[in-house]
Amino acid sequence: MLVGLAGNNGTTVATSILANRQKIQWEERTGTKTPNFLGSVTQATTIKVGETATGEDVHVPFSSVLPMVDPRDIVVSGWDINGANLYDAAKRAQVMEPDLLRQLRPELETMHPLPGVYFPSFIAANQADRADNVLEGSVQMQLDRVRADIRQFKADNELDKVVVVWTATTEKCVEIVEGVNDTAANLQASLEAGTTGVSPSTVYGVAAVLEDTPFMNGSPQNAIVPGLAELARERGVLLGGDDFKSGQTKFKSCMAEFLVSSGFRLGSIASYNHLGNNDGLNLSSQEQFRSKEISKSGVIDDIIAGNEILYPPGHKAAGPKSGSTKAVDHCVVIKYIPYVGDSKRALDEYSSEIFMGGRNTISVTNVCEDSLLAAPIIIDLCVLSELFSRVEVQVPGEGDVPAHWEPCCSVATPLSFFFKAPLNKQGGRDGVVNALFTQRRGLENLVRAMSGLPLTNDIPAIY
User: Fold this and answer.
1) Each residue of 238-275: pLDDT tens digit?
2) Active centre residues (catalytic)
3) Do residues 390 and 77 touch, judged by C-beta distance below 8 A?
4) Model-level pTM?
5) CA distance 100 to 81
6) 125, exposed or middle or buried, with CB in 10 Å at 0-12, 13-18, 19+?
7) Going by DSSP bridges, is the β-strand pair 239-241/215-217 parallel, antiparallel, or unpaired?
8) What phi, psi does 348 have (nearest 5°)?
9) What are the chain's domains?
10) Residue 183 near residue 233 (C-beta atoms within 8 A)
């Protein structure tokens, strides 16, 4: 169930699943196209499982190593504050090709988003015109309605598991306030009292957890407040977040890891984006942009912290008298340019110190089809969160407490590969890993361990 079903990401996910399930072909200027899951780790990558007698590597599809959901079997529904049916919403998004939408029109027109939770102060004022499909009543009443929607959807479709993914508009971040959202009990009391400091995304997260349903936060705001993380731990429900890592930021984490691991002292990153979809319109508001700026800026922190040769304690990017306050000067700019639509432009400049006082500058222009990069991530999160919600680990006995089984994790740190601002086991952002290939190895090794395969070992590849 997608929060933001009628948005660009929501319509792209729904349309792509239907197209893959029905094996629909469509025409473009360059010829006939067929549906696929390119960009999905679970559906389009492989895992090495061994070697032949002659030393050749043997790889199998990632999705075949453990029992995983086939995305073609996923049933899509969700909420949106805009009530457009999915055909009209997909046409508005201008992401999928007209010939594909024409063939799926009869089915898409029957798909309508459920009314959504709408607290106007949390998103930009420019979103008010879209808000024609909203829940009424107190915060507690809206929470109860969302819970009922989850139960009804599960029963109507005879589903084994529901996963809730927030792919709606970026909200402003909330303050962590003692007595409001710092503990599970306080958060639930705040919801019942209608406290204004609780965001819609947190309402959906609480509803999902109370229905024993995994919740993934694909936007940068801090939806998973300490009280929600505690509630999920108490109930053994999976959480994941924050903010899908799809285009520019994924590339940035690779570049930073490449430069630092090569022994270059990365000194500055200047990142500029412009896009013209509704996400860009919402981010033109300063409070919402600030949420995105925080998630995009923290992606290099652990890479820098891991090398005290290049970055000794107290190091400033351009020297002690330069005015620099950080080890790497890092600036993020996002502008709304309606003409470019969903085709985001990302321009980055990486400046580094190299051998004997030299300087190296790398400039990159990246055209990111925003929703077509995000949709396979959403599919992966649904597939993997369903998988991990079935996994338990045995905890050794201690004292009077016997050995017992527990969920493998509450906050899904193994899914950090998919998020710009991944969360630690407590639901915070301290001490997390952002280096992309480290995240990828960690995810693969967990899958390998659960299937009985040895962990990855790269020594034979080079020796």
Assistant:
1) 999 899 998 888 999 899 999 999 999 999 999 998 98
2) 243, 292, 344, 420
3) no
4) 0.92
5) 26
6) exposed
7) parallel
8) -130, 145
9) 2-241 (3.40.50.720), 248-369 (3.30.360.10)
10) no
